[in-house]
Every structure is written in structure tokens, then in C-alpha cells.
Amino acid sequence: MSGEPGITANRQLLHDTVHRSVGLATALTPHIGYTASTALARQPLATGRTIKDLAAEGGLLTTDQLDVILRPENLTRPFTEPSAVATP
To answer: I need a surface site. Which of 4, 10, 44, 87 has the fewest CB within 10 A?
Structure first.
């Protein structure tokens, strides 16, 4: 079967899909609380914007904090150390 085309991931589409996922608000819950993460989760549906952008603009966390929390490697491990990311 050499020479046959295989499945190729559309990396940009996958990236955009992950970053627009409302589920990312769940990862922020230990850092901003349930009420804030629930309110935040509603906003992308209404605006089409990302959780990261909305959280940063809302002053919930800094961009640097969001980069750490929302890093894919960190999202696939259990949250174990609350002090790993300081809240503002």
C-alpha cells in the first residue's frame, strides 16, 4: 500500500477547535471559581471569541497564567497543585 495517500490532520482546524471549546472554562475553575468559570463559558457561544481572550480581557487571569493553565500538556494531567499558578 505504499504510495497511497493517508489521513492528514488539519492542524489549524484542530487548533482552532480546541481553542474555541467552551470546555476550556472547566480547566479554569480551580483558579477563578465555579461561578466565574460558568459565566465565562457562556460568552464564547454569544461572541465567537475564545475562552483565553475573554478571561484575559475580563481580568480573571493574566495571559501568562492562561498560557500555562491551557497548555495541552497541562490539560491532560490532573490538577494537583493550586499554587502552581497564582491568581491576580
So the answer is: 4
Give ∠ CA 60-64-66 in degrees, rounded to 5: 50
Contact 24, 51 (CB under 8 A): yes
C-alpha 50/C-alpha 46 separation (Å) is: 11
Q: Tens digit of pLDDT for each residue in 34-65?
A: 999 999 999 988 888 999 999 999 999 999 99
Q: Which pLDDT score is estimated for 83?
A: 47
Contacts of 85 (CB under 8 A, 6+ apart): 31, 61, 65, 68, 69
Question: How open is the CA angle 8-9-15, to the nearest 5 degrees?
Answer: 165
Decide: 22 and 41 in contact? Cβ < 8 Å.
yes
